[in-house]
Amino acid sequence: MEPRSGSCKVNFQQIARELDISVMTLYRVVNNRPSVRRETRARVIEALNRHGYFTHKPQTNVKVLFDFTDHEYLTHYGNRLKRNIEKLNYICHATNHRRDPEHFFNIAAECEVAVFASIPGREIIERTRLANPDIYTITISTKSNADVTLSPDNTRGSEIAARHLFDLGHRHVAVYMAESHPTRFERYKAFYAEMKFLDQNSQIDIIFEPRNSTTKATLANYFDRTVPWPSAIFFLAGEFADHFDRDMVKNDPERFSGLSIMTYDRPQDLEFRVNQYNFDRIEFNSPDLLDWAEYYITNRPMMKKRSPIHTHIDVHLVTTGSVRNLKKQS
């Protein structure tokens, strides 16, 4: 742990006397040693916080669990974060709680921090805390009951998208949702609520892609069966907009010439895949997730009680002209 400012002076002997513990015990807490009872550690942390000590210094022996799943985006950025943390001399372990839960819980019992790049459910985080009550949990990209959740501001982003389409005269919009996309409901609910707030008579179609289908097949089925078409389609994740652009729009541009297209995610965010679309979109900077995750790993908040932290990455609108202005045409 380190002082809140360079001028802060803390009398450890006085604090030890106040708490009726030895100075050595206090120093064990300061140095994040495991051989201190949880109740004593909490009392010391509370006292140190009052005197201006608030965070851990990086320790070369800190063990960090990284949990992965079969999700390209999260795996890519989770591995980048893992490499960054390893450069700081943290000991990192890779797990997959779905494929090998026994290995996951065995590693969790030995680690100070668990970073989930794996879309964990509430139950898995609660079971992780049972395996190790002192573990500090961080999730990337999705809402969770972890100590720290890091994600783009999906609510604000979807509200911005709805207002953009509304301002350009669109009242019938299709929203593309894929079962494999973990934040689809968070983004959709905010978009739907904002559109209905702006115009309660607006029409919103859901295009749902199940895991056993493809983007091309799902969209072909929707457009072949729907009359009339919506004036715009909003993709809740960029990879599906990219599939639509490559597999359908470029192969039959005349058929889709009257359709306005909007998406989430900037093309260059998916560094493991080259996306070529140039649609109006809601952007955020994915590496910001890594910077904040690294901050929370190396400066773990010292709290008497678990108070969940949700850090939102800023989002903004980028326009390219793919959404037509229907008001000018009327």
- Give the strand content: 15-25%
Task: Please tally the β strands and state the result.
Answer: 14
**What is the mean predicted local confidence, pLDDT?**
87
Q: How much helicity do the residues have?
A: 25-40%
| Low-pLDDT runs | 1-7
Can you give me a brief rundown of this structure?
40% of the residues lie in helices and 20% in strands. The protein is of the alpha/beta class. Residues 1-7 have low confidence and may be disordered.
Any descriptors?
alpha/beta, 6-stranded parallel β-sheet, 6-stranded mixed β-sheet, 330 residues, disordered N terminus
Walkthrough of the structure:
The structure is a single chain. The protein is α/β, with parallel strands linked by helices. The chain has helices spanning 12-19, 23-30, 38-50, 72-87, 101-108, 122-131, 154-167, 184-198, 215-225, 238-249, 287-298, 326-329; strands at 2-3, 53-55, 63-68, 91-95, 113-117, 136-140, 148-152, 172-178, 203-209, 232-235, 260-264, 280-283, 309-313, 316-318. Helix 4 (72-87) links the parallel strand 3 and strand 4. Helix 4 (72-87) packs across helix 11 (287-298). The longest helix has 16 residues, at 72-87.
Topology overview:
Layout: E1 2-3, H1 12-19, H2 23-30, H3 38-50, E2 53-55, E3 63-68, H4 72-87, E4 91-95, H5 101-108, E5 113-117, H6 122-131, E6 136-140, E7 148-152, H7 154-167, E8 172-178, H8 184-198, E9 203-209, H9 215-225, E10 232-235, H10 238-249, E11 260-264, E12 280-283, H11 287-298, E13 309-313, E14 316-318, H12 326-329
Helix pairs in contact: 1-2, 4-11, 7-8
